[in-house]
Structures are given as C-alpha cells and as structure tokens.
Amino acid sequence: MLIDTHCHVDQFPSPETVVRECESNRMRVIAVTNLPSHYAMAADRLRKHRLVTPALGLHPLSASRGLRELSTFKRLAHVADFIGEIGLDFSRHGKDTRGIQERVFEEILQGIKDRPRFITLHSRGAEKAVLDGLTRNGIRGAVFHWFTGSAQDLAAVLEAGHYVSINPAMIGSESGRLVIDSAPKNLVLVESDAPLAKVNGRASSPNDVALVYEELAKKWQLSLGETIETIRDSFRRITDQFKVPCRDLVAP
Question: How many CA atoms lie within 13 A of 13 on its CB side?
C-alpha cells in the first residue's frame, strides 16, 4: 500500500472518480482542503471510504475568506485528527495578506495544540515563521509539504523533529533535491500534491507517488518494498499518537 499524505482530491474535475481509483488501488490518501466549509463537504462525502481521509484546512492564500470561517475551523478541530492545508505564504502570491495570514495561523495553532494530530503545512517563503509558530505552541511532528526553503531552514525543521513530504515535481528541482538529499529516512513522507503538481507537463494524480517511492529507493539504496515500509512506519509514528486504526496499512 502506497501513502499519499497531501492530495487536493476536491480540486479534480471528478473527485468521486479519484476516490474510487484510490480505494481500488489500495492507496492511503489524505485529502487536504483549503477551507473548513470544503472539509465539511468532504467529510460527508468520504464517510463511507476507509482509505481516503479528509483533512481540515484553511490555506494561507485563502486567509482573507478564511477569517469568516475561523470559528468553524475551531469548532471542527475538536473532532479532526487530520489537519491541512494550513500555514503561511510570504511569496509574491501571499505578501499582500501577510498580516491576515499570521493572525489566522496563530489562532489555528492555538486551536490544535491540545493533542497530537497529523498536520500538513504550507510554508512557501515563510519557513522560519511557520517553524517558530509550531515551536511557540509546542507542536511537534508536523509535516512540511513541498519544502522550498534554504538548507539552513531545512536543517532547523528537521532538528525540531518535523517531517518533510516529497512529491514528484520535487525530484527534478534544485530545492526538491536538497530535501531528498538532506532529510533522514525516518523524517520523510510522500505526497502527490495532485492535481497542482506537474508530472511531465500534466497535472499529477495520486498514482504518481510511485515515482517518489522509486526515487527514494534509489537514493536510500533500499528495495522498493523496504522503502514503502519505511514511509509506512513514519506515517504510523504520527497516527499512532491519536489512536487512528492502522489496519488499512497492513498488506492483505
């Protein structure tokens, strides 16, 4: 079983088709959302699916709209074990809403620091600020999705015990190679970021995580089976903290 820890299932033309394919292929997928209202819809529609799990999100580039949904996020956070996509974006895409983002992110962190959760983070151009927020709120073992920061920032994230998730688009990029070459095996997870990431010029799909597993197997000099088990162990290390059943991760 392959694990995709960051996929925007709701942004596909036919989310239902993607979910059925993931279930058929026995893929464990964390379906991130950009707003609490999106999570509520996804939670209802995915209720009967055991391998595709929605994550409660409030994307930093949706922070202005997210202010109106912040109270909803806090309410839903009481029952959500999977959180994402949350974080900060100080790139040119998000610089105009930096103040709003910082306010929303801090309130989110305060609302989810009460117990362990699976947390997948956006940190483009704001790696240090995201890490500082986690540290300030005593949150450990979060996952930095598609990390693009400096070697110094990456070292600080890993030193703090956080994870990084690698997608197919990172394999051929300089920032992606930095993560692949630097991160220890026990702090690596795999994601597709589908359909937003690109693979050979097309939108990615959850199945494309197989490319990442193959690349990591070569880098780590492990068999594909050993690499799959290594990633599975890291995922379990997080989810076991909040007693999420992992029977679906056991090979048939």
Answer: 2
